[in-house]
Amino acid sequence: MYLNTAIKNRLLLDKNHTLHDMKKYSIILFLSFSIFACQKKVKIPKCSIASIAIENSSRKGPYQDFDTLFEMHKEYTAKSFDYPVGKPDGKGYYNAQKFTKNNHLGDDWNGVGGGNSDLGDPIYSIANGYVTAAEDLDGGWGKVIRIVHLFKGKYYESIYAHCQTMTVQKDTWVKKGVPIATIGNADGIYLAHLHLEIRDTLFMEIGPGYSNDTRGYLDPTLFINKN
Ligand SMILES: [Zn+2]
């Protein structure tokens, strides 16, 4: 009789343990899934070297990640644009190779002093935005900064190339007019200048710099003057 009760109690204890363990594992499983789901939801957009060009108007996929990001940081929505050198209006600089001249896909900003007189001069963010890349691409590009701007409900990207130094990092916010880099020569390939592009389509490759196909590219000076 005593033995029977002891066995019963032991069985009951085992059963309770099993129930307890099951509860414990369910909670762990639930928590793991929640963390996984949560990570999925707040994923930061990957856009530095994404290869697909998606229309600005369709606002699907990665564009929605930017919608979320800019919604959370409304103070970084772009209100206006300015020149990237010679603050505030490009003073002391000239556009040495305008958009579409020789199939150029951007503007080349040079100091009026010519040669390497502008080497090391500050480059400014042309508007509020989110830095999606600050990296050395070598070759004809050198150090490149890419910034995404949300302006009047549409997305734009500004690209600053051949930099000597970069003072901002990927995945950070910038305000209009803050120094982001200095003018360089892409490790001695060119005379110092800033190659600036403005695009109205995000997620395009860094591209060739020159092409007669200007889809996705805007005339930077025209765009800045208008906005
Ligand atoms: Zn250029």
Description:
There is one protein chain. This protein is an alpha+beta fold. The chain has two domains: 1-42; 62-226, Glucose Permease (Domain IIA), CATH 2.70.70.10. Helices cover 28% and strands 25% of the residues. The strands form two sheets. Strands 1, 2, 4, 5, 6, 8, 10 and 11 form an eight-stranded antiparallel beta sheet that branches. The protein has a three-stranded antiparallel beta sheet with strand order 3-9-7, with no helix packed on it. Strand 5 and strand 6 (154-163) form a beta hairpin. The longest helix is centred in the first third of the chain and has 40 residues, at 2-41. The protein is globular and about 45 Å long. The protein starts with a helix and ends with a helix. The protein binds zinc ion. The site of zinc ion has 6 residues, from loops.
CATH-level-4 superfamily name of the largest domain: Glucose Permease (Domain IIA)
Structural class by SSE content: alpha+beta
> Which blocks of ≥5 consecutive residues have pLDDT under 50?
1-7, 9-13, 27-53
CATH topology of the largest domain: Glucose Permease (Domain IIA)
Look at the structure and give the CATH class of the largest domain. Mainly Beta
Our count of helices gives 4
CATH second-level architecture of the largest domain: Distorted Sandwich
Q: How large is the radius of gyration?
A: 27 Å
- Bound molecule types: zinc ion
User: Which range best describes the helical content: under 10%, 10-25%, 25-40%, 40-55%, 55-70% or over 70%?
Assistant: 25-40%
Characteristic terms for this protein:
single chain, 227 residues, alpha+beta, Glucose Permease (Domain IIA), 2 domains, 8-stranded antiparallel beta sheet, 3-stranded antiparallel beta sheet, 4 helices, binds zinc ion
